[in-house]
């Protein structure tokens, strides 16, 4: 089961990178990029995952505010790895901010060139440069 | 489909499998992991260890403890990336920032407006509760700020653009609020250093062997996480104002948004 999950996540990343490279439409490029971000975050979370055993019945949290050493030991034995979660958490927010920047850039390009097609934009730019130098 | 595309897809699949093989052979550890890495165990064991307070963070929530204490400097630099990305997005529209939009609008129907007014309060309450309980439950500045930031986006659609143009929460106030919150994020890690006259550490939260400074670890009997609460609060405000500013700028009407392009001869 995990083999399928890991393989599909890798495939997801590959397809989204294909989308970023091959699609001329900037909006499609952007969507592919967000899919890549989320897939990579999921891979990171998966690395900190822990197999759920039948013996573990308590939730993976600290159950008392004045824990005994045994509580702390139990918490350590139940909880998943917090480090990838902390890294992914910040990565998501930074990703969101970068996405906002990308969206506003794409919007700017659309308002300027009236298209979001990269091929069209480079054609228009070429035309403008030829016009200017002539 | 051209031959070039087929070759390209074949190459992508090939590279995926090349990357997949070491993963399946265990290059990032056993997948799925049955046990934790030692560093994760250390974080979980020390974060709320009342018997060994030299490395504790006074917060039972290990993720927040890592984000703002154990790896606090990391998060500070990530906040700088976040700050820069939003500033860059705002710079593209620097000519029209803070202006009133040329089109008015009346928004959606009365029922939607009243319904949303109730939901608006709930969204803000959930967001701030996520921010303020960051050191106790999953949540914190980033998540809470992102939740609260949903409110202005929906408000913009429901009440129309006029709400922002005539609101007291103006562009200038939002920028000032954001700068204050970011100053707070910079000052909180420096306060231990200043108050102990250089004998503390940057990002010191609780008392250490050589540095006697400590942010309050509890309020009455609730764990407060010391500086974690303050940093979460400032980060929440910074994230909320940043997203609100970005949405206000992105959702200007076409007529006004074209203004920054007018003055440019070539534009690229």
Describe the structure.
The complex is a heterodimer of chains A (about 130) and B (about 270). In chain A, about 20% of the residues are buried. Chain A has helices at about 1-20, 25-45, 70-80, 80-115, 120-134. Chain A contains five helices and no strands. Chain A has a single domain, classed as Helix Hairpins, CATH 1.10.287.3510. Chain B is mostly helical and about 270 residues long. Chain B has one domain (about 60-260). Chain B is about 60% helix and about 0% strand. A two-stranded antiparallel sheet of chain B has the order 1-2. In chain B, helix 3 packs across helix 4, helix 3 packs across helix 9 and helix 6 packs parallel to helix 9. The chains are: A mainly alpha (about 130), B mainly alpha (about 270). The interface between A and B is large, with 54 and 69 residues.
In short, what is this structure?
The complex is a heterodimer of chains A (134) and B (268). Chain A is an all-alpha fold and 134 residues long.
Strand order, main sheet of chain B: write it out: 1-2
Number of strands of chain A: 0
Report strand % of chain A.
under 5%
Largest interface: A-B, 54 and 69 residues
Give the total of beta strands of chain B. 2
- Terminal CA distance of chain B reads 34 Å
Could you say which structural class the secondary elements and strand pairing of chain B correspond to?
mainly alpha
Oligomer: heterodimer
Give the biggest beta sheet of chain A: none
> Helix-strand pattern of chain B, N to C?
HHHHHHHHEEHHH
Sheet bearing the most strands of chain B, described? 2 strands, antiparallel
**What's the Cα radius of gyration of chain A?**
23 Å
Terminal-residue CA separation of chain A: 63 Å
Q: Which residue ranges of chain A are poorly predicted, with pLDDT under 50 across at least 5 consecutive positions?
A: none
